[in-house]
Amino acid sequence: MNRQFRVKGISGIETHIELLVETTGGYEARITSSGEYGVRESCEYISDDLLESCLRTGYLIELTAVEEAAVLSA
Predict the structure, then answer these.
(1) So where are the chain's domains?
(2) Paired sense of beta strands 26-35 and 4-7, if any
(3) 23-53: per-residue pLDDT in tens?
(4) Which of 17, 34, 49, 60 has the CA that lies 20 to 30 A from 67?
(5) What is the largest CA-CA distance in the chain?
(6) From its phi and psi, is residue 65 left (phi > 0), alpha (psi between -120 and 50) or beta?
């Protein structure tokens, strides 16, 4: 599993979510934020309902293979 998303959020802070493992009712995800003060990374649980809601409202945008490669190489 390697779905990646860009978070529509605060100007000046770039945040990406990578789904690592599918679990019962959701996913373990790596959240990486980079901005003026450096990079912050955490691993969190995201429920199926929350992921679907964020996609439906446009808060999360799933990255294409080309965009994923750019994120991974950065």
Answers:
(1) 4-73
(2) unpaired
(3) 999 999 999 999 988 999 999 999 999 999 9
(4) 49
(5) 36
(6) alpha
pTM for the whole structure: 0.80
Q: What H or E segment, with its residue span, contains residue 63?
A: none
Picking from 33, 39, 42, 45, the residue whose alpha carbon sits closest to that of residue 9 is 33
Question: Got the DSSP string for 4-55?
Answer: EEEE---TT-EEEEEEEEEETTEEEEEEEEEETTEEEEEEEEEEHHHHHHHH
In tens, the pLDDT along 50-70 reads: 999 999 999 999 997 655 555
Locus of tokens 């990486």: 32
